[in-house]
Every structure is written in C-alpha cells, then in structure tokens.
Design goal:
The chain has about 230 residues and is α+β, with helices and mostly antiparallel strands. It contains two helices and twelve strands, in the order αββββββββββββα. It has two domains: about 1-25 and about 205-230; about 25-205. Strand 2 and strand 3 form a beta hairpin.
C-alpha cells in the first residue's frame, strides 16, 4: 500500500524527470499575414505569412513564408522601387541579429545578406532587414528566417513585446515578386506590409512549472491519504 512518504518520493522523482528530461525553452507565438502591397489592384493577398516565435525572454525567431493567392506565388525577393530588403522587421529595444537563413525557390540562388536598417518603399524604415542579391526567380526565396536576441537591458516578456511600430506604423514588411502559375519570370515586384495578426499561441509552461504542478498534485494526494489514515 502506498504511504504519504511514497507519494512524496514519487512526486520528487516526477519533478526531477520533468526538469532534466525536457528542454528549457517555451513557445510564445504570433502569426501575421502581410495583406497589403504596392503591386496593383490585380494582385490579391495575403502575400506573405510571418511567424514570430519568442522562445524565451531574450530570444525570438521571425520566419517569413511566401503565399499563393489569385493565381500567383509571391516569392521573397529584392523589391522594386525604393528599398532592397526581402524581409523587414521593426524590433523593440536593443537587439542583435544572431543568424539568418533561407529556402531558395531555385538552386543556385544568390546569397542572403544582413541589410541592417533600411527602408522598404512606402512602408517606412525597419531596423532589421534581410536582402537578396537581385530580383527574379533565380534569386528568390520561399522562406527567410531571422534569429534575434534582445540585448541588455532589453527583454521581451511576451511575444507582443518583440515588435513595435515604425515611423509609418508598420511592424513587418517584405519584398515580393509575383510569379504566375507555370511562369518563368516575375510579372512584377514590389513590397507587402500591413501585418494582420491571424493566430496567437499562448506560452507553453516551462518544465520547472510543470514539475511544480506535478509535485503539488502528488502532495495533495499524499495529504489526503494521511488524513484518512489518521481517522
């Protein structure tokens, strides 16, 4: 028969297993669609989906994925007009760009580069951009990923703290090129922004929190059994 001490021991074992057996990162995610572009009325969005994932109070990943709508795939490229960024974000507070990567639409695409702070046409200046070497499908990407860190004394308590509006009221933008189904060249290039939040995923509890919850549950069971044994 299990005694209160046995249950307590099981609770401690559970807490240790949860703490040591699972990684320490949690997920706090917002997903946005870039719904407005300067391509013209015949090109309909949303054009790009952007996922912001705050993995902890000082780290976040921003992922841009091209979308297909209205017969066109909107690839991530050097946008036409003013600005060269293929992906732009306006991050709050002090931060650094840890790394960036992308999935090219075709093999042999020109390398991505850290564009730093830059303007993306009429959508204003973004304090972190990633650029492609040139326009056209041969230098286009279907996905671009930024990994960023909040630097002291800055931190992000929730995913909503990662981004903040720029001088035009925008938080995200992307250089895009419209590729028709079966096409071999871009019909036009430009920029998309007007980020509209479509999904919010609340934070996943840290393993230590799960451990405490499990230990608390075991403790209540043990306490109840102890009271019954005393009667």
């Amino acid at each position: 028969m299990f005694t209160p001490k046995t249950f307590l021991a099981l609770g401690l074992a559970l807490a240790l297993a949860l703490t040591l057996g699972v990684g320490s990162a949690s997920a706090d995610i917002q997903v946005y669609d870039l719904t407005t572009s300067n391509l013209g009325a015949s090109y309909t969005g949303p054009f790009v989906e952007v996922t912001v994932n705050r993995t902890d109070s000082t780290h976040a990943t921003i992922t841009y994925d091209s979308l297909t709508n209205g017969g066109y795939t909107y690839l991530l490229v050097k946008g036409g007009g003013t600005g060269t960024g293929a992906a732009g974000a306006y991050l709050s507070g002090n931060f650094s760009l840890d790394s960036f990567s992308g999935t090219p639409y075709q093999s042999g695409a020109g390398a991505l580069s850290d564009g730093g702070s830059g303007q993306l046409d009429g959508y204003g200046t973004f304090n972190q951009t990633i650029s492609t070497s040139a326009s056209g499908p041969s230098n286009a990407y279907t996905e671009i990923v930024m990994n960023v860190t909040a630097t002291s004394p800055n931190s992000w308590a929730t995913v909503a703290d990662v981004l903040t509006p720029n001088d035009k009221g925008e938080i995200l933008a992307a250089g895009i090129g419209a590729l028709a189904a079966g096409g071999t060249s871009l019909a036009t290039t430009g920029f998309a922004s007007d980020a509209q939040q479509v999904v919010h995923t609340s934070a996943v509890p840290e393993p230590s929190t799960l451990a405490l919850a499990g230990l608390g549950t075991i403790g209540f069971i043990a306490y109840g059994l102890r009271r019954r044994l005393k009667k």
